[in-house]
Design brief:
The protein is mostly helical. The chain contains 20 helices and ten strands. β6 and β7 (about 250) form a beta hairpin.
């Protein structure tokens, strides 16, 4: 092995040589190795060189890791997660994804109990093939992204010297794309009507669903909506924020010529009437209040009815520790969550036998209907893309045009579009 090809030099410390001490030292280009061996001396040049070459041979298999840094994958992953929590720079969604992958690693002991330095691509391949039984390739790609961040952290901490992951690893392991295909029939008029007819009949549920199918708003945009965002006089809704699951409120705005602006969409006449009805019923109807704060008998009694059918009173259940008086079963007065949307939608689907859809699929329904109604030209597609909050037409076409607001919501063409929803 040629010296010129190795990232180190062998130097002699003359002052130590005069005293008869071991005086040859390895000066590594790698800062980590340089710091680690800065006070390590050898009796001869050959001994130092042999040690350096041995180190770089072992680096390829991660064997050159000090004992105090030989952590198991589970232990290092737990440390990685704690850093994520302490750092506070990533979203709650990302933390949730990391926690989910961590649970999979703990469950898959052949990987979880290994030392980080011993993990090879083949070990990750076994892990992915095991988890693939219940997950699509798209999901595994997301998991792999977390594993890449984790092993990058391990490399930075000196737990490994060679990364066992590489970009495109999942695509190489699983060449066939088995990701779930979107079922176009799930957003047909018939299926949406079937779900709508079997929703809970309280005003809260009816208003949330109607808002979704008359505006195409994201679920997080609906939850974040304030009464002050609705202009009943001019018939418009201002969308300037979004709540992602577990993350809180954040800006979700379009960029227009370098300036950050919100978007305004038309208020459908039917939705206007429903929102006004809901505002009259809701105890929280001040301008600064959220529109979709849960209210009504269903949110105070549905779990009580559940236990009553099982011949148990709420007091008995609370006494046994099954629920607490302050648990999420008593949800009145709290802001709607993604779980609220899933619960009301899944219940209606179960009751009706409709094709299962997610709340986001209602956005697909709106987009597809708008495109079918009046999406033949580029100008029309731009109008639809703006209403939906897309930065580019391609997003509207590629993601939502299964069959294949608005710069100025007073625009007649857009008003006609919305009127046909």
């Amino acid at each position: 092995m040629s010296k010129n090809k190795l990232p180190f030099t062998i130097n002699k410390w003359e002052s130590r040589a005069k005293k008869g001490w071991a005086s040859w030292i390895i000066k590594f280009d790698d800062p980590k190795l340089a710091k680690e061996f800065r006070n390590t001396f050898f009796k001869s040049r050959d001994e130092a060189r042999a040690k350096a070459e041995d180190i770089f041979v072992n680096l390829k298999t991660n064997k050159h890791i000090h004992v105090e840094k030989r952590f198991t994958v589970v232990k290092a992953f737990a440390e990685f997660l704690q850093r994520k929590i302490d750092n506070g720079s990533c979203s709650q969604d990302h933390k949730n994804r990391c926690n989910h992958v961590f649970r999979l690693v703990v469950k898959f002991k052949p990987l979880g109990n290994m030392n980080c330095a011993d993990v090879k691509p083949a070990d990750l391949s076994d892990f992915y093939h095991t988890t693939k039984k219940t997950r699509t390739r798209r999901t595994l790609i997301n998991h792999h992204s977390v594993m890449q961040k984790f092993f990058t952290y391990c490399f930075e901490q000196g737990y490994i010297y060679q990364m066992p992951t590489y970009p495109g690893m999942i695509r190489k392991l699983f060449e066939v794309n088995d990701s779930k295909q979107f079922n176009v029939e799930s957003i047909s008029e018939e299926n949406i009507k079937l779900i709508k007819d079997n929703l809970f009949d309280d005003t809260f549920t009816q208003t949330m669903f109607l808002t979704a199918i008359k505006t195409g708003m994201r679920a997080g945009e609906q939850i974040a909506l304030l009464w002050s965002d609705i202009d009943f006089d001019n018939g418009s809704i201002s969308i300037t924020k979004n709540i992602t699951e577990g993350e809180g409120t954040k800006a979700d705005k379009l960029t227009d010529k370098g300036n950050v602006v919100g978007r305004v969409i038309p208020l459908h006449p039917d939705l206007k009437a429903q929102l006004m009805k809901w505002k009259m019923e809701s105890p929280w109807s001040k301008p600064e209040d959220h529109v979709f704060i849960r209210s009504g008998e269903r949110f105070t009694n549905w779990k009580r009815s559940y236990w009553k059918r099982r011949n148990k009173t709420t007091e008995q259940v609370v006494a046994k520790g099954k629920i607490s008086p302050t648990s999420s079963y008593y949800q009145e007065g709290k802001l709607a969550t993604y779980q609220t949307l899933r619960y009301m939608l899944e219940t209606a689907i179960k009751e009706s036998g409709a094709i299962p859809i997610s709340w986001h699929s209602l956005r697909h329904y709106v987009a597809s209907k708008l495109i079918l109604t009046d999406g033949g030209s580029e100008k029309d597609l731009k109008r639809i893309a703006t209403m939906l909050g897309h930065k580019t037409i391609s997003t509207t076409q590629n993601v939502y045009a299964h069959f294949i607001a608005l710069s100025n919501y007073k625009d007649t063409a857009t008003q006609n579009l919305v009127a046909n929803l």
